[in-house]
């Protein structure tokens, strides 16, 4: 396929929460979308009572179960190229920052960055992505696996570009401060308000000034696909989650629009009052695949 997008995420469900609309958007356009997930999410909480014993402290089988959840979520988004960094189970979920699970020798947080990056370079050699999406230096909100995914993805891009197979543009997931401020007001009276007690967008560990945002992807027509992907991650996102409550109150705008900063590459032409890109491939000269010769298979 002429346009090829690579996403690097830490755990199953991160892709749907943070970039599900973007993935569905480009998959619907017929572009190649490749997802690389760095761990199986073994340390996640479980919100399905009958599956509680899959937890790390019991049978320690949650990671295997979440493989199926991830594939179902990506199917809802129209994405079929789903991979795990170094193969499923190579790296283990590190848990939240400061926990003893960070020190597990198999934890992703403990991984050698160059070694992990080499596995991602293998994917880049095969897929030749023009665009890559991952987290910022803080992993968006400070989770160790998100931070490590950032480090690994950026190192892999550096190595791959030296070979001529790296992405031309790299985006980091972001949330504009204006959107956070609007959310504080819009969600103030909702049941299960996730911002309860927060007075200002400055109180969040994330939030990007609007003038640092480079792209806004509008996939409001595909918000149902993102909701379906979230529901596929049932062990992690209960039916009572504030995500669904807010989706019901604010619909496609909440689920279908995602934002990015540009970490590497040239910014393409934009649109709207902020001049934000509406296409992550903006400014990239994409060569169409050569037509197959007659009689070729």
UniProtKB/TrEMBL annotation:
GO biological process: mycothiol biosynthetic process
Keywords of the record: Hydrolase, Metal-binding, Zinc
GO molecular function: N-acetylglucosaminylinositol deacetylase activity; zinc ion binding
UniProt key word tRNA processing: no
Binding site for Zn(2+): 11, 14, 146
Cofactor annotation: Zn(2+)
Domain of life (superkingdom): Bacteria
InterPro entries cross-referenced by the UniProt entry: GlcNAc_PI_deacetylase-related, LmbE-like_dom_sf, Mycothiol_biosynthesis_MshB
E.C. numbers: 3.5.1.103
Cofactor note: Binds 1 zinc ion per subunit.
Catalytic reactions of this protein: 1D-myo-inositol 2-acetamido-2-deoxy-alpha-D-glucopyranoside + H2O = 1D-myo-inositol 2-amino-2-deoxy-alpha-D-glucopyranoside + acetate
Pfam families to which the protein is assigned, alphabetical: PIG-L
Function as written in the Swiss-Prot or TrEMBL entry: Catalyzes the deacetylation of 1D-myo-inositol 2-acetamido-2-deoxy-alpha-D-glucopyranoside (GlcNAc-Ins) in the mycothiol biosynthesis pathway.
Family indicated by similarity: Belongs to the MshB deacetylase family.
Protein name: 1D-myo-inositol 2-acetamido-2-deoxy-alpha-D-glucopyranoside deacetylase
The organism of origin for this protein: Asanoa ishikariensis
High-level lineage: Bacteria, Bacillati, Actinomycetota, Actinomycetes, Micromonosporales
């Amino acid at each position: 396929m002429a346009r090829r997008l690579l996403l690097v995420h830490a755990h199953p469900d991160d892709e749907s929460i943070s970039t599900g609309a973007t993935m569905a958007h480009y998959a619907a356009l017929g572009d190649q979308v490749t997802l690389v997930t760095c761990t199986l999410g073994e340390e996640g909480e479980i919100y399905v009572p009958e599956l509680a014993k899959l937890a790390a402290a019991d049978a320690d089988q949650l990671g295997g179960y979440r493989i199926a959840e991830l594939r179902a979520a990506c199917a809802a988004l129209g994405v079929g190229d789903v991979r795990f960094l170094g193969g499923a189970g190579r790296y283990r979920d590190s848990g939240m920052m400061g926990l003893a699970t960070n020190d597990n020798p198999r934890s992703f947080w403990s991984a050698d960055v160059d070694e992990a990056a080499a596995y991602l370079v293998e994917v880049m050699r095969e897929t030749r992505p023009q665009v890559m999406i991952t987290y910022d230096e803080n992993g968006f909100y400070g989770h160790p696996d998100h931070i490590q995914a950032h480090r690994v993805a950026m190192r892999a891009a550096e190595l791959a570009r030296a070979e001529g197979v790296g992405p031309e543009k790299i985006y980091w997931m972001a949330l504009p401060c204006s959107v956070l401020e609007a959310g504080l007001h819009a969600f103030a009276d909702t049941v299960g308000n996730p911002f309860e007690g927060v007075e200002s967008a400055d109180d969040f560990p994330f939030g990007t000034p609007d003038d640092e945002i480079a792209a806004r992807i509008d996939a409001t027509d595909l918000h149902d696909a993102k909701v379906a992907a979230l529901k596929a991650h049932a062990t992690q996102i209960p039916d009572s989650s504030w995500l669904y409550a807010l989706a019901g109150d604010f619909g496609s705008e909440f689920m279908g629009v995602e934002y990015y900063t540009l970490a590497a590459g040239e910014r393409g032409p934009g649109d709207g009052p902020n001049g934000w890109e509406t296409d992550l491939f903006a400014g990239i000269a994409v060569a169409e695949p050569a037509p197959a010769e007659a009689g070729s298979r």
